[in-house]
Specification:
This protein has 285 residues and is of the alpha/beta class. It contains 8 helices and 10 strands.
């Protein structure tokens, strides 16, 4: 198991970024060369307060502005793809645990396909929205005791976890021996990240504590005898992230310019495999 202190060892300055969503504060991104990942510094002691914003769209089901409509449309399409991915796995009981379940949309889609659903969401406002859909979520992962799941999913969640080493260990314990872990995270080595640099929206400091490369995911999970068996591109993320990044950089949304940048990022990734976000399918060794 990787020790948490190793992730903070021999860090080198990489980039400075602003929190555009809530505080407008400046944060540093520090490079851990051994794990090929970035670490946000410093992490506020009251980090939960940095999620309190109407702009934090993953905790709402808003569908009013053009941006929200685009987000919700893409979300509904990707939900079908996510459930199809789960349906492709061989499972014993068809149980799924979604960590960071938000407003419960993914679990709601799984339930329709006859999955036995379980979820974790620390944000109480998001949990209340999920409860209205009949999706009842636990607040902490530690509340699941003596349970094992066929599939555990983290859709853009791992980057938010402060105690990363402990979380990875917990996920392994909750997964059946032949179970499947699905982890989706942004990729700071993508073309759109390199283009927008400090304006890249997927850095999302300080809520994103960690910033992963493909090598860092491989190395982190190998420490608990797990390995990546498949990597799946999340092509829509290049467009969504570019749209936000363009706003941060210029002050206004530029859909045409953003679409072109997202298209370029996906085109380059066909050769490099460095997509804006990636989904990792991970199994026990």
């Amino acid at each position: 198991m990787v020790k948490q202190k190793e992730l903070y060892k021999d860090l080198k300055p990489f980039l400075n970024c602003i929190d555009y969503t809530v505080s407008k504060e400046m944060y540093g991104l520090m490079l851990n060369k051994k794990y090929e990942m970035l670490v946000t510094s410093p992490i506020p002691e009251d980090l939960e307060n940095y999620y309190i914003s109407e702009n934090y769209i993953s905790h709402t089901d808003k569908n009013k502005t053009l941006f929200e409509k685009i987000y919700q449309t893409v979300k509904n399409y990707t939900l079908k793809k996510k459930v199809s991915l789960l349906d492709s796995f061989k499972t014993e009981e068809k149980t799924v645990l979604d960590v960071g379940a938000g407003t419960g949309e993914f679990l709601h889609s799984c339930k329709k396909k006859h999955w036995k659903i379980f979820g974790v969401e620390p944000n109480l406002d998001a949990s209340r929205i999920a409860a209205k859909k009949g999706i009842f979520l636990k607040e902490k992962l530690s509340e699941f005791k003596d349970q094992k799941f066929d599939v555990i999913t983290l859709w853009h969640v791992l980057e938010h976890i402060e105690n990363l080493s402990e979380e990875i260990e917990s996920l392994k314990k909750l997964l059946k021996d032949k179970g499947t872990l699905v982890v989706a995270v942004p990729n700071y080595k993508s073309h759109d990240a390199e283009h927008y640099k400090q304006y890249w929206a997927a850095f999302d400091v300080p809520r994103h504590v960690w910033h992963f490369s493909q090598n860092s995911i491989t190395k982190l999970f190998s420490q608990v005898s797990m390995h990546v068996v498949k990597t799946i591109p999340m092509k829509f993320d290049a467009y969504y992230v570019s749209l936000l990044s363009e706003k941060y950089k210029s002050g206004v949304m530029n859909p045409i310019k953003s679409f072109w940048r997202g298209f370029q990022s996906n085109t380059k990734a066909k050769r490099t495999s460095e997509y804006s976000s990636l989904t990792y399918v991970i199994k026990n060794t």
